[in-house]
């Protein structure tokens, strides 16, 4: 681990100012991911800007029936407004990590967690995401847990978050602040696909911090569900997961948002699956079609073709359970 | 908690809490990494990031200039090692930092010592290494074509690597002539021990004497090696290991980091603490190598085996030959008139392997017990019936009868408790709630590896007793076991028995490895306690002031801290009273135990597993497991059940999720972290019912108890794999049985 300066910011403005002044600075909140990255020599921040205590942990109602969740709200939240109005989000949060980690981890940090690709996590391997231009050891290595959608020749890692997958299905927006003020980034635009620049993981600028995540009031959000499939019963990242939010009126699907986790370098919006549901009765035929469509465009590798059927199966399961719960 | 027999409320068998339980649950228990000494410095090892090549240049300038750094030691420094690895009994076939060559990822290249831990970690990151990289052999698959039979003095197996029984038989002809045949190849990956406690050591020199606090399953064994490596007489080395936070085999031998810490402590003239990182646990303290096993079975239509052929190849390190004894129990498992086993090795760029809980038998039983299940389907016979028909009463390997064997009884009992009769044989024939249900079973055998042990028991004038033996508490209940045996032997209440252990200043015992604690250390304690009691009885019956004066020794019994007449329990006196009249001096007795060898000694078990598998999201859920063990008399039903359940969970991890994956290009492990190296979490662990036959085996050991740490995890993986086959119709022959193997 490299020595670093630790600064406890007294205000959001001060935190943003520090980030702007020190290009090597990073924000620290729950510290569940950054400390392991620092110990392993993956991240070497010059400064750690501690934002804990900046009153960013509030959950408040929005006029449209939505919710604003402060960036420092812990992942262990059991706020009843989320439980009732946005069930997929609570299901996703509770399927992630362990209770101890959820007690520490924040919403903002969850969105900014780094990939779990073992080639990224071990500096002795080549990794374009960690060291741009160094290559991707996973391409010739073990890619059994890697992405089948949205990959590029420079990176095939999967995004590890459960929470962000649910946020995709709930059409969330990320509210950020930098030296030039606040702006809002739709969740689908917040995480980037690797393309040729996998090191640029999110749309957040280096001098911006996340203030909150906003969940708009949508009819589909209360009718949402998250299904995660993993190698053991708990405390493991998803091999495949699905968040679904479906608005059904008169037995017909009026709107649907479907997102996949564990199969792409970002929380993956499965638009073809959504289209397969729209305007159809919310029943087995439409669900089967949506599941099949969920992996449209998938380009699996020889050792991860199994993820195609897993991704379809989690979509099918999530929609079926959602239908059954109606 | 269930047992076939009654569980005693006190004495041998009583389910008493562990003597160190309170310390452990309150956090006051002290492990090696908790040792703090005055002026103690902290060390970090720097490890290689390549798996083959050499160190072209190692630059320590920046590290040495970093704050707090006391020294940085590399292969360029003169190392103090004496003799050779082979002559000192050092497991690795090269002393640490002996030269510039690198043969595996994670090999130690430097040790950095600083005033505090953070300084040493930081300085370690500043050691700049320029490598000359050679092509590596990253996987067993690449090495397989060059597999060979281990030879020369590097190997230390007490078992034959190639065997045909009866000698001169023609196994191929026997196979060709069999009515029914199976031929399958089974694979197990690199497995890691993953104890909670990483390797840790605190080394301190005083005068010319080295004190080593080291996590060890065998302090005396460690001392011998450390003394030899440093060229010291053994009495100048003291090794202490009072509590070990799990080991499973990876603390049986001295590792390079312990030698490096001891050397560094002498260089900096201060005590040095070194705790391996979690990642280093995967590369610095051994593993079980990957093994490919081919099993061919031939049988008659009536289900009697005609022949077993078992051929194995395991990966071994570049610097030494270490065959993994997966064939060790094949001959002792079933009544096949012809048997042929063969073990080969193949060189891979990996670190040294070491025994991992049930070396040989865990991987071997996965293959053999899976093959038996396959055969049962070929024969159209219940797998349990197939085992019955091939039962053995004499060990073909030694020609001796077993001291005790109740395997058939264990099978019947387990089958009944499990409800095996409800099983419909056809794969995929049992379903519930949309899930496939599978029942599987397997049997287990684990031969004992003889050892010797010594112990000392002292009965004191204050009415207490103390047992002293070097045994280590590695989490299995060893301290409680020796206390219980001491209490039973002396008649001093358990609450008044203290234990000293984990120290080379105490009598040497069997290492806490190879299931030897209960049988060997336990016997030595049993003999010492009996001897101490008899000495006290002798004192009493020859003491005119004793109420027991004049009685024959055999007429006196002991209980509740008191000696009394067998037929008139009121007549007697306490140890306290007796010893007070004899100057308050304690009665001390030492005993050593060497087992007899007139019989084959082994432990046995039967496993029954229920799995449930969602066909669309196929993760294997073990929903029920019943196991029955035949391990002699149970000394502590609580500790025994706990150890059995732990062993079964251990086997579940093997069967379903554990795997250390070498990168196919470089040979580096890609999953050397608990994030990726999955072991079962509580939510994976089902209802595990454990039963014991609980019949004393006094031919094996005088107190009738045998070690059970290994047999409990033997056969678990096969039992689960067989259940998976029954549920899905798929025979998974390569562990672990992860979802990707069941999809589609």
Automatic annotation (TrEMBL), chain A:
Coiled-coil segments: none
PROSITE patterns listed in its UniProt record: FAD_PCMH (PS51387)
Keywords (A to Z) from UniProt: Oxidoreductase
Superkingdom, taxonomy of origin: Bacteria
Record InterPro entries: CO_DH_flav_C, CO_DH_flav_C_dom_sf, Diverse_Substr_Oxidored, FAD-bd_PCMH, FAD-bd_PCMH-like_sf, FAD-bd_PCMH_sub1, FAD-bd_PCMH_sub2, Mopterin_DH_FAD-bd
UniProt GO MF annotations: FAD binding; xanthine dehydrogenase activity
The protein's name in its UniProt record: Xanthine dehydrogenase YagS FAD-binding subunit
Source organism of this protein record: Streptomyces paradoxus
From TrEMBL, chain B:
Stored SMART domains: Ald_Xan_dh_C
Alphabetical list of Gene3D superfamilies matching this protein: Aldehyde oxidase/xanthine dehydrogenase, a/b hammerhead, Aldehyde oxidase/xanthine dehydrogenase, molybdopterin binding domain
Keywords: Molybdenum, Oxidoreductase
EC primary class: oxidoreductase
MF GO annotations: iron ion binding; xanthine dehydrogenase activity
Claim: Oxidoreductase is one of the keywords in the record: yes
Annotated protein name in UniProt: Xanthine dehydrogenase YagR molybdenum-binding subunit
Pfam families per record: Ald_Xan_dh_C, MoCoBD_1, MoCoBD_2
Residue span(s) of domain Aldehyde oxidase/xanthine dehydrogenase a/b hammerhead: 26-135
Keyword Protein biosynthesis attributed: no
EC number assigned by the record: 1.17.1.4
């Amino acid at each position: 681990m490299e020595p670093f300066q630790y600064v406890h910011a007294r205000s959001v403005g001060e935190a943003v100012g520090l980030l702007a002044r020190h290009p090597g600075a990073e924000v620290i909140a729950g510290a569940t991911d950054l400390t392991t990255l620092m110990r392993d020599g993956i991240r070497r921040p010059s400064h750690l800007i501690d934002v804990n205590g900046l009153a960013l942990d509030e959950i408040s109602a929005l006029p449209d029936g939505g919710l604003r969740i402060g960036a420092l709200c812990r992942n262990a939240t059991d706020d009843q407004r989320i439980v009732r109005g946005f069930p997929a989000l609570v299901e996703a949060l509770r399927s992630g990590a362990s209770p101890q980690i959820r007690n520490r981890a924040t919403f903002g940090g969850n969105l900014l967690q780094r990939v779990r690709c073992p080639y990224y996590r071990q500096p002795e391997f080549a990794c374009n995401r960690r060291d741009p231009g160094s290559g991707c050891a996973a391409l010739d290595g073990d890619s059994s847990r890697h992405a089948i959608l949205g990959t590029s020749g420079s990176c095939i890692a999967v995004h590890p978050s459960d929470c962000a997958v649910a946020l995709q299905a709930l059409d969330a927006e990320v509210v950020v602040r930098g030296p030039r003020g606040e702006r809002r980034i739709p969740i689908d635009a917040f995480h980037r696909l690797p393309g040729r620049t996998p090191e640029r993981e999110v749309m957040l600028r280096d001098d911006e911090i996340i203030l909150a995540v906003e969940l708009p009031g949508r009819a589909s959000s209360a009718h949402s569900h998250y299904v995660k499939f993993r190698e053991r019963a708990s405390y493991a990242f998803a091999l495949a997961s699905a968040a679904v939010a479906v608005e059904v009126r008169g037995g017909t699907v009026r709107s649907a948002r479907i997102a996949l986790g564990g199969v792409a370098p970002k929380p993956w919006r499965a638009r073809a699956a959504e289209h397969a549901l729209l305007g159809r009765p919310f029943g087995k035929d439409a669900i089967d079609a949506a599941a099949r469509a969920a992996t449209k465009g998938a380009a699996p590798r020889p050792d991860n073709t199994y993820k195609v059927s897993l991704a379809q199966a989690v979509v099918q399961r999530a929609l079926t359970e959602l239908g059954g719960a109606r | 908690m269930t047992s076939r027999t009654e569980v005693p409320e006190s004495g041998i068998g009583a389910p008493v809490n562990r003597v160190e339980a309170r310390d452990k649950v309150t956090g006051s228990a002290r492990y090696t990494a908790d040792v703090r000494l005055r002026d103690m410095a902290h060390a970090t090892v720097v490890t290689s990031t390549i798996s083959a090549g050499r160190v072209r240049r190692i630059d320590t300038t920046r590290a040495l200039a970093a704050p707090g750094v006391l020294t940085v030691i590399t292969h360029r420094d003169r190392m103090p090692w004496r003799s050779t690895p082979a002559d000192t009994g050092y497991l690795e076939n090269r002393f640490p930092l002996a030269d510039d060559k690198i043969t595996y990822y994670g090999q130690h290249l430097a040790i950095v010592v600083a005033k505090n831990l953070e300084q040493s970690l930081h300085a370690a990151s500043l050691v700049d290494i320029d490598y000359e990289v050679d092509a590596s052999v990253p996987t067993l698959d690449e090495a397989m074509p060059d597999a060979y039979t281990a030879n020369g003095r590097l190997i230390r197996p007490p078992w034959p690597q190639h065997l045909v029984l009866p000698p001169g038989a023609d196994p191929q002809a026997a196979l060709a002539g069999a009515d029914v045949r199976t031929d399958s190849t089974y694979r197990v990956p690199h497995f890691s021990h993953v104890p909670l406690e990483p390797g840790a050591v605190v080394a301190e020199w005083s005068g010319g004497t080295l004190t080593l606090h080291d996590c060890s399953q065998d302090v005396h064994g460690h001392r011998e090696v450390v003394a030899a490596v440093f060229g010291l007489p053994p009495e100048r080395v003291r090794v202490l290991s009072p509590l070990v936070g799990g080991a499973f085999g990876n603390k049986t031998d001295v590792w390079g980091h312990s030698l490096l810490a001891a050397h560094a402590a002498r260089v900096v003239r201060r005590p040095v603490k070194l705790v391996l990182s979690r990642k280093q646990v995967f590369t610095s303290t051994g593993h079980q190598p990957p093994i490919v096993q081919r099993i061919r079975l031939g049988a008659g239509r009536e289900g009697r085996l005609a022949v077993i052929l078992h051929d194995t190849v395991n990966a071994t390190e570049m610097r030494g030959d270490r065959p993994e004894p997966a064939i060790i129990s094949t001959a002792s498992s079933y009544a096949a008139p012809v048997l042929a086993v063969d073990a080969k090795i193949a060189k891979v760029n990996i670190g040294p392997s070491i025994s991992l809980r049930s070396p040989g038998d865990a991987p071997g039983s996965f293959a053999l017990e899976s093959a038996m299940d396959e055969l049962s389907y070929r024969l159209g016979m219940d797998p349990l019936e197939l085992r019955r028909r091939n039962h053995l009463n004499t060990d073909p390997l030694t020609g001796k009868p077993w001291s005790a064997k109740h395997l058939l009884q264990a099978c019947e009992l387990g089958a009944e408790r499990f409800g095996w009769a409800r099983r419909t044989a056809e794969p995929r024939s049992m379903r519930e709630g949309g899930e496939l249900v599978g029942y599987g079973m397997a049997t287990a055998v684990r031969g004992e590896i003889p050892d010797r042990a010594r112990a000392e028991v002292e009965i004191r004038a204050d009415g207490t007793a103390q047992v002293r033996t070097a045994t280590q508490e590695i989490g299995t209940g060893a301290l409680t076991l020796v206390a219980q045996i001491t209490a039973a032997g002396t008649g001093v209440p358990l609450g008044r028995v203290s234990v000293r252990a984990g120290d080379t200043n105490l009598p040497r015992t069997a290492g806490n490895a190879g299931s030897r604690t209960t049988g060997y250390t336990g016997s030595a304690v049993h003999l010492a306690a009996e001897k101490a009691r008899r000495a006290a009885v002798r004192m009493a019956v020859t003491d005119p002031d004793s109420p027991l004066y004049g009685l024959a020794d055999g007429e006196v019994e002991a209980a509740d801290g008191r000696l009394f007449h067998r037929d008139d329990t009121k007549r007697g006196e306490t140890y306290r009273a007796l010893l007070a009249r004899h100057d308050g001096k304690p009665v001390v007795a030492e005993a050593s135990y060497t087992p007899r060898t007139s019989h084959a000694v082994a432990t046995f078990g039967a496993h029954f597993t229920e799995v449930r598998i969602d066909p669309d999201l196929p993760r294997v859920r073990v929903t029920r497991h019943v196991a029955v063990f035949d391990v002699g008399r149970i000394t502590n039903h609580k500790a025994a059940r706990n150890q059995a359940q732990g062993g079964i969970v251990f086997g579940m991890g093997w069967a379903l999720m554990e795997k250390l994956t070498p990168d196919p290009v470089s040979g580096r492990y890609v999953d050397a972290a608990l994030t990726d190296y999955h072991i079962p979490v509580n939510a994976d662990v089902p209802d595990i019912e454990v039963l014991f036959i609980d019949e004393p085996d006094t031919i094996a050991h005088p107190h009738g108890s045998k070690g059970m740490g290994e047999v409990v995890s033997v056969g678990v993986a096969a039992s689960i794999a067989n259940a998976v086959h029954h549920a899905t119709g798929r025979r998974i022959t390569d562990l672990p049985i992860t979802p990707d193997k069941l999809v589609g």
